[in-house]
Amino acid sequence: MNSDIDPEYAITKLNELLDQIDPLINKSYLVGELDKNRLNTRIKAFVQSAFRDDDKKIKSYEDDLRLNNRRFVHTEESDEVKQKRYAKDLEIMRNRLIGYKDELELLTNSRKKKTYSSQQETTKKSEPKKYSPAEIRLGGIIGIIGGVLSGSIAYSTISNLVSVALFGSVSVILLIFGLGCFVKPDEFGPPLLLWLENISKQNSSNKGTGTEQK
User: Fold this and answer.
1) The 3-state secondary structure of 59-74, one letter per residue
2) pTM for this predicted structure
3) Cβ-count burial of 5 within 10 angstroms (0-12 exposed, 13-18 middle, 19+ buried)?
4) Distance between CA 8 and CA 109 in Å, rounded?
């Protein structure tokens, strides 16, 4: 498929070409031969524009038409024979167009599936992580314990105003969110657990960096 061509637009053009087949089949070769030749030219022009392997496709297509003509070489060139050859040419054209359409529809569906999967993946990443009630309760307990410990550190460093302010703030926040996990788990649980997870990841990263430096 030519990457510069929209496959859905190409399918629309193919349908337009296919729509010309049936009216021609119902005509006499005397009336429809010229239009059939024009259609043949349009089909080859479409293939050259839409497909990268256009040379291979056109050769195969023309080989089918030549083979059809050879079938009638040794038969009498009656109107009946000419009509059969004319109809068979149109049948070959129809089958080729259907084949090109199937190829383009497969490509289009594959692209849509990839786009849909990508959108689904993006949606999953953007959705907030969900935690079980047990995980939220555990996070609440950790938050309360962390709040108590931070409060103890703040009290023990009461002479240092910076430390008191820092650990005191952390203590209050942890206690609020820790207790909130039991009062309003859906509101306080997820942000607390996410914060704890980030701290855990950061600590693991720092440990790994320290090991490498040694």
Assistant:
1) HHHHHHHHHHHHCCCC
2) 0.55
3) middle
4) 10
